[in-house]
Amino acid sequence: MTIATMLRTTPAKTAVVVSLALGMSLGLQSSAFAGAREQAYRIYSRLTGTPPTNPMLAQMTTCINDGNSPSATCTTGLSTAAVNTINNANSVGTKGQLAAAFLAMEDPNNPNFLNIKVKNMVIPWTNKDQTVFAPLNDTATTLIGMIRDGTDFRKALYDNIIYTGNGVSPAYSNSNNNHYVQMEHQNLNLRTVLQAQSQTAVTGHPLASVAGVLTTRASARAFFYAGTNRAMFRFTMLNYLCNDLEQIKDVTRAPDHVHQDVSRSPGGDSSIYLNNCVGCHAGMDGMMGAFAYYNWGTVVFDDTLDPDTQSMIYATSANPDFVLSGKTFSGTRVMPKFLQNFNSFPYGHVTTDDSWINYWRVGPNAKLGWGWGDDTGNSPAHTVSSNSGSSLGSAAQLGYELANTHAFARCQVLKTYRHVCFNDPSEATLENIAGDFKASNFNMLTVFSESAASCSGN
To answer: Where are the domains of the chain?
Structure first.
């Protein structure tokens, strides 16, 4: 029954329907057309978790009322980088709304944007349980620092970078997390205390081993400990490309890089391998070779040692001889975990170095939007350089490959929008913000400000 039909019934029903229709109309209007003051309040509270002060609310309201021409009154106190980012945005939200968002993010009297909002978003990326209740650590602070500084966020997966606390005691240690625990216990302002440093200088690891946050202590502890290092690949895909293996398995890829430890007849049924297992392993095992020289703790896994007091190791030369299943391995830099259970399928791929190949560049997973290299899926030459101008190692090359996908850009937008707005963006909004993210040289502050502006009306 239409509203027009219902209006032709009884007076009582007419009154009810008119009230209902009017209420629905007003509700939609208040949601979609919130006033400047309401928008300012929502932007601030969603980016910091706290309400704004009256002066801050007034300044943000001025910005929103300014539309696409923010006045000097609006931008007072904003950094030059913030003003440049606002002026270069063109897709989502007015420049006044974006200025209001930057006022909230750069509020000198409220550290909550970085200390709470951003920290709570990235902490789950640093542990297998994906819990927000893990302690602050070097992976999280590096991500937070890069967001604060507007650094090209792709570099999180490959550059020689780490953030530590300036003047914080105890100093950074490869064998414990006390430096960051103390920073959190003192509730230090991450906007002022974090400083960017080269990972090689802080950790002492060689440049060839460095791959952004993938080789920071917290990530290595979580994803290089025990296992076969497949966890590092899986959680990198999940945390930074928003795709778990089940979503991207492809049984049509060549299986020639599937390792020896994978049974080709699990439970005595080869169809399980052909229809399921190979879908993940054909692509994953081809790329995880980049992590062949890494382990957490000792060369040969020892579960009697406390993992939290150990550190990441990277083989720069051949490991000492080791024995697996009665076979002695010598003269190899490859960690034993890559060669274990070789009797499961002796004809499988044997890892001899840290080379890798991406079979997912073609086929169904081309939809991830791989950004460079040829169309064959071949591993690119190791010639891409970090900020220091030095050639990147194999793990960093893989990080570069993953960071230059369209899926990486979409993932940062999707996670940020959900964290700020508490719902999913429309496909159009997602693509528009992702486009601005790329255009801003992958500045995450663009994503935060445009997400907050996009949902400020509801």
So the answer is: 3-32
